[in-house]
Write a structure and sequence with these properties.
Distance between the termini: 25 Å
Keywords: Isoprene biosynthesis, Magnesium, Metal-binding, Transferase
CATH architecture: Orthogonal Bundle
CATH class: Mainly Alpha
Largest sheet: 2 strands, antiparallel
Low-confidence stretches: none
EC number: 2.5.1.10
GO molecular function, one term: (2E,6E)-farnesyl diphosphate synthase activity
Strand content: under 5%
CATH topology: Farnesyl Diphosphate Synthase
Structural class: mainly alpha
Number of domains: 1
Pfam family, one: polyprenyl_synt
Order of helices and strands: HHHHEEHHHHHHHHHHH
Number of strands: 2
Helix content: over 70%
Oligomer: single chain
Shape: globular
Radius of gyration: 18 Å
Mean pLDDT: 93
Strand order of the largest sheet: 1-2
Number of helices: 15
InterPro entries: Isoprenoid_synthase_dom_sf (IPR008949), Polyprenyl_synt (IPR000092), Polyprenyl_synt_CS (IPR033749), Prenyl_diphosphate_synthase (IPR053378)
């Protein structure tokens, strides 16, 4: 398969996965009658109709490696996207990154209000774990428990939220590359790694294969964040769907800040190549995941 054919296949697969996830999210977040309706409207606003769905795609594609039922995989993908959306809603709040634009539209706290946005983020997070724990997600309760435990570890104080705390206290400080690597591994990488591992958990994959999938997800997450930092430096509000140039303006600790754009770009490409190498044992079945690694560092938004 040529690079052009690989890119086209990945683009089609991403679209198909996004459509499946969007439909599932719509089903999992029905609008209620009653006074809590504005809360669910804000939840739906935050999670529906936008984003690359890369994390959800990772769940679906890694699950496919282990012949997991697509219905189960899509439910987990939707849960991951809810968790991710919650983090974006809270990131955009004035007390955090104070951003008025997300996915090309007003941030949740601008479209509604700060209190509703906080509650919408809280509710998206708890709904994600509820979905993972429901019997429809997997017939084996041990698998469901492992999914819940793994997502909690990836998103809590030793994962995404811990990374956000390090990011906040590091603003305006010069950090060494190993410290930035850890910050980004927690804030961004852990959820991407979980998204890859979730398919292996669903498929009850053996230890060596779990190890390879985890390595892929870890290095993919690192490459993704560096590429994101480069886009923040080079992109525009229109192309990114969010405010560009905020990292430098806020004195954020990034690899771009310490390495410069070209060295950071080379490092991201190395990480993407390293991620793809973890998939060697899966043969052609993992071609889309390899293409995703390349896309991660070459994307424009």
């Amino acid at each position: 398969m040529t690079a052009t054919e690989s890119d086209a296949a990945l683009a089609a697969a991403l679209r198909d996965a996004a459509a499946l996830i969007e439909t599932e999210l719509d089903v999992l977040l029905p609008l209620p009658e009653g006074e809590e309706r504005p809360l669910v409207e804000a939840m739906r606003y935050a999670v529906l109709g936008g984003g690359k769905r890369m994390r959800g795609f990772l769940v679906i594609e890694t699950a496919r490696l282990f012949s997991v039922n697509i219905t189960c995989a899509v439910r987990v993908a939707a849960a991951v996207e809810m968790l991710h959306a919650y983090s974006l809603v809270h990131d955009d709040l004035p007390a955090m990154d104070d951003d008025d634009l997300r996915r090309g539209k007003p941030s949740c706290h601008k479209a509604f209000d700060e209190a509703t946005a906080i509650l919408a983020g809280d509710a998206l997070q708890t709904r994600a774990f509820e979905v993972l724990a429901e019997p429809d997600t997997h017939s084996d309760p041990e698998v469901r428990c492992e999914l819940v435990l793994a997502l909690a570890a990836a998103s809590g104080a030793r994962g995404m939220v811990g990374g956000q705390m390090i990011d906040i206290v590091s603003e305006g400080r010069q950090l060494e590359p190993p410290v930035i690597t850890r910050l980004q591994a927690l804030k961004t990488g852990r959820l991407i790694q979980f998204s890859a591992e979730a398919g292996a958990i669903l498929g009850r994959a053996p230890g060596p294969q779990r190890h390879h999938i985890a390595g892929y997800g870890r290095d993919l997450g690192a490459a993704f964040q560096i590429a994101d930092d480069i886009l923040d430096e080079e992109g525009s509000d229109a192309s990114l769907g969010k405010t560009a140039g905020k990292d430098a303006a806020q004195g954020k600790a990034t690899m771009v800040a310490v390495m410069g754009i070209e060295r950071a770009r080379t490092h991201a490409a190395h990480l993407a190549s390293q991620a793809a190498a973890y998939l060697d044992s899966f043969g052609a079945k993992a071609d889309l995941l390899r293409a995703l690694a390349a896309f991660t560092v070459n994307r424009r938004n």
